Amino acid sequence: MPPIDEVDHSIGERLKAARLRRQMTLAALADELGLTYQQVHKYESGRNRISASTLFKAAETLGVELSFFFAFCGPAERGDTLASPPMTGADDDLTAALLRIEDPDVREKLLRLLEAITKSDRLRSSS
């Protein structure tokens, strides 16, 4: 088996994160895209490269901008700390934990807290 391309892997991780954020199963996303769940799993793992048209349809289905899948590209490679790092397994755990919070006020307050932490971290990094 050929090695997994880093870009395909990162796109797959972000596809999975967006799917989990929407609380969709592999089968449900596959059905929306007209694919098998095995094929979506291969996209998420980076084993198969997703076509532009399928990625576009996935973005629409998952309610994310197409650029969401490429947040790891570009500025980070030039040393810009404002770019998003590649998704990890811990990110999936965090997303799943956040999705279990049902109270919208708690979710909103947690979002504000995370934004403040991120802003503070960026300010420290740029000093």
TrEMBL record:
Keyword Flavoprotein: no
Protein name listed in UniProt: Transcriptional regulator with XRE-family HTH domain
SMART domains: HTH_XRE
Keywords, alphabetical: DNA-binding
Pfam family, one: HTH_3
Keyword DNA-binding: yes
Lineage of origin: Bacteria, Pseudomonadati, Pseudomonadota, Alphaproteobacteria, Hyphomicrobiales
Gene3D superfamilies documented for this protein: lambda repressor-like DNA-binding domains
Top-level taxon of origin: Bacteria
CDD domains: HTH_XRE
A GO MF term: DNA-binding transcription factor activity
Domain HTH cro/C1-type: 15-69
GO annotation, cellular component aspect: cytosol
